Amino acid sequence: MIALLLAGNCCANTALLPSEAKKITAQEVIERIKQHLGVEWKEPTVDTFKAGDPQTTVTGIAVTMMSTLDVLQRAAAQGQNLIITHEPTFYDHLDNPTELPQGQQDAVLAAKRAFIAEHHLVVWRFHDHQHRMRSDQVELGNVHALGWEKYQDPANQYLFTIPETTVEQLAEELRIKLHAAVPRIAGDRQSKVTRVAFSPGAAGFRREIGALEIPDVQVLIAGETPEWETVEYVTDAHTEGRAKALILLGHIASEQAGMEECAKWLRTFVQDVPIEFLPTADMWAAPVSAKTKH
Amino acid sequence: MIALLLAGNCCANTALLPSEAKKITAQEVIERIKQHLGVEWKEPTVDTFKAGDPQTTVTGIAVTMMSTLDVLQRAAAQGQNLIITHEPTFYDHLDNPTELPQGQQDAVLAAKRAFIAEHHLVVWRFHDHQHRMRSDQVELGNVHALGWEKYQDPANQYLFTIPETTVEQLAEELRIKLHAAVPRIAGDRQSKVTRVAFSPGAAGFRREIGALEIPDVQVLIAGETPEWETVEYVTDAHTEGRAKALILLGHIASEQAGMEECAKWLRTFVQDVPIEFLPTADMWAAPVSAKTKH
Asked: Of the four, A158, A183, A199, B127, which is 20 to 30 A from B150 by CA?
């Protein structure tokens, strides 16, 4: 480097010293995401900053399913100050928990906000547009985690034709591959199935029944859904002698692979900082006692 | 009877022939319920007729947690043509499933409606006012099923001080006594608890967090709730080292005892027709195959 300086013009030298490495802000990371989405950015959306200053220089990115305090602690400990999360951070779909009886004074909420502030973390939610990508990135993550590429229906990315199995065996495969602590089955768990719909997360009654109304769909896999809606529907369908069953994996297990997919995708156009997928512990698994936490 | 007739005035004879027994309509049963509630009737409410003609003469009453088609079939087979249910019948909180992609042509819905019409059933929902009774009748049912009368807090019917146990052992007690197929625990399942809140059904974030914010409440029992709301809250509370855990029993198991309580209560002022509590099978239990159904 000294030789080059002595040689004169050196503006073409791109080997910058670490302190001169180009910094990237949280806002700039999100702008790159928008550019690489492949679909138009639409508002209103929940895909916004939830905490922290978007102008913060990013030192590392943690990509996660749900930004629980545990995930935030791990991210902070590893110097990951931008957290990209799929689920809400503050217990409400709009991250605005107005229904908390003690409001912003609620101790649990206040402690979480304080942690974020102390560690200068920035939290951004990637949900609506992640699902809207030409290949729903969450579904894509599930397909890769399950190894179901060859089973996916070319006409509908949420439908699969799998080798015949029973609902019970399918739930076991999902439990293992997607790390679902407590999968639950409604309908006939012994029934044989081959035509499967996978609606990750809590897509809601309209989408879930839309899948179940497809005549050859025999089982719907989802994250969570109200029992007086889709679950009662499947229960009645079973009573009517129809081949319809339901497997609920829990929200995190049904979408988490999509965040691992997201981290891989991000690395293709963000190389300025390290990017890590941080799994959210399944909330139904036996947790490590808070006292013995790392 | 003939002797009395020959004796002259017999208007006081109350031993009526069966065909002359005073008939009661579904509407009249509901009017008696309103009179015996002990609280004012308030509208708007979901406590309305959902199907059938309220002027129907009642031949028997089935009281149930959720009027699944299976429950309706059993009621019809036993001559119970008035079904009093706690949960929706038509997959929607207002029993108006506008989100069904195929609308009223949806095969599952249409078959259920057809069954109700063929058997001239009447379905009425008892939900809002049942909870509003001076003793929330659903909670009362749970207290009786659990044998927790002596543990109940005189100042708050949803709070209990029980002999110290662990969250895991408590979940097991609830599984057995309330017939919950798949109880789930969030937070530390090994933690010792004595102060318990029980919020049956899906009361929602505001009520659930209201219970958890009470400083000495260590565990909340509920039916179901969104994972990005109360469950994430409890998960974070646990990470913060707070003694807060959650047991979700499933909706039916968390309220069904209240319908058994309801049937007993109804019999105290409705003796015109037989009244039976018909349990709804837990939707997460392995069901009997539809082909071998009774």
From this structure: B127
